[in-house]
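Lab meeting minutes (informal)
Scribe: AK
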Amino acid sequence: MLFVLAAIAAGRIWRFPVADEIATIVPLVPSAARSSTWALARFYLQGGDIHPPTTFVFFSTLYDLGVGEAALHLCSLAMTAAALALWQLLTLSLIGRHDEGAVRPITRFAAVLLCGLTPLAIGQGDAIRWYPQFALAVALFATLYLASNTRAARLASAIPLGVAASINLIAPLVVIPLAIYRYLLERAWRPSFDVAYWAIFLLFASPGLYSAVFIAKQQFDWLRHYQFGASPLAAGVTDILGFFGGNAVGVGHAWMLLPAVLLAACAMVSLIDRRERANPIHLCLLLLGAIVPAALSGFWESRSFLYLAPVQILVLTVFIDRISQRGFGFGAILITACAVLPALVAIGDLASGTHPFKRTAAIPYGEVIEFIEQNDRGGSLVVSFDPVASWELAAQGTASQRCVRDIPGHEPACFAERQHAEALFVIGAPSGRYQSTYWRAEYAPVFAARLAKIIGARTKVGELRVGHDEDAALKTWLTGVPLDEFILTVDLYR
């Protein structure tokens, strides 16, 4: 309940989508290319995107049943909440096992606060993307593997692990730590069990493995350039800021996260058990440690680590329990307060958007739509460089009186007759100051030429600037990319 209330306070669920979610939502709408869920699955199975088909098939099925965007956000939020609940139960189970079944009230209270106010879960828990599904699959795997000593439960953990591999190709960051834990730390090589375990895993992972072959052939260059293109230092800093700040806390507020980062590091080091190599906490530490090679390879998509957010909470809660066990109750309370602080900052940054972690996630599209509605006399043309604005305007009830041209994209049927419309709205600009998921700065000259042709002899008569980024100057200094304090502009030509 605390998590859901915190997510609502941060403006989650009933909100405009972000550009990444548009990449999930748009394919759900039947088209000539993908007229059914099976056609959608075949498209992703054959490397049409960098993701396996499982997430899209899931959302497509819900969409076909009449589930709208807000309800899809709720479904994702429910999966994240379930993942948090499973990790919280696992946390208390591991502590109780160590302390002969007793769990201190202060530990339970810390677990409630830390799980309910997990920054990355608040920031990304309702995303119409693969992160919540992957987080739930990993939580089910860890619960079945660590919380039960029965052979059947451990064998069953191969099912969600295989499903995770069919959700996203980041699954090796879970599978490899499991292999290290099982065969090097537990030293639990049992041929009959292991053959059955990995056979079950491969069965449920087969869609992901099948699509991985095509992705490697068709999307390798794109992955290398855009997913792993950052330097190790930049990727590491971005991953740390995004992970502890919920993909919401901006650079200007990064200093507030330092206590939580230091506490996490201390907790991980202090919980290494040199006497019991098979301690279940070691699997959690290995899962968290997998972030390091990912960052060193240039991977900077911190939101992908949503599944690790409750793992870090588990480690921190066990650490707090050890502190309180030694009689330092005030220290445990202080540590809990420092760990909760990032969530409070994240909620503030998500709600206000003046210090955004990601600029395109802080655009107030309601103001954009209102500006166009107020200045539209009917029969206008909208040229948009922003995929979210294109999607929202096309879905408006007055869309039949307005033609929305998405750049890059295909010209709609209405474009030919509205190309010379009296009113022309241009959302965004083909410059390096604003980059979306769908186009990059190097394409700016081509898009500028297209836009100039569409504008023709019209004159600019109005402008709207939205989305205030108070960290723009700091980001410009850090990256060398000139950024305006306003994120998006809407120009009116007549």
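Next up, CB showed the second protein from the same session:
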Amino acid sequence: MSKTNMNADKGDPGRKPRPSQPGAAPAQRFSPNSIILPLQSATLRDAVDELMPKALHGAGDVFLKSAKIAESLKKSLGPRCVESHHGLVFIHHRLKDISGPRMALGISPTGLQPEGEGGTAVFVAALFLSPLHEQGGDIPLWAKKTMCDERMIYQLRTAPDLAAVLALLAAP
């Protein structure tokens, strides 16, 4: 085995890691800094105020507009930008001021008060922001596959700490 091949096998820091599938880029997931456990909000609308700065953290000057963007999103909350699944809510919004997707996740172990009559409590709220003209869906497929299961929602809402949440979300 050549020296170059030996370094590649040992994880040579000069080499870029390979994606798990040839030609596939790794899916962007929630980072520890983008997760709120527990949410302090009482309602989904209030949770948007908590989630927006987390989603925009590190996105440059647009972060300074977090409160204004959250207000705009809260005015348009409804079926067009919210998708519900057994205590999980995906919130999506498109912005012209970001260059790539941004996201945040909030968990309320006791549940957020439902919006409107007959609504169900929300325990997990995921906010996805996309560039205005980016093609593709508003909610990443990996998020739907990973999070839309009732068992997963229960595990997330009862997770004891951030490490447990990250482990649940990293599972295939």
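CB comment: The helical segments are 3-9, 44-56, 66-75, 141-147, 150-157, 162-170.
No objections, moving on.
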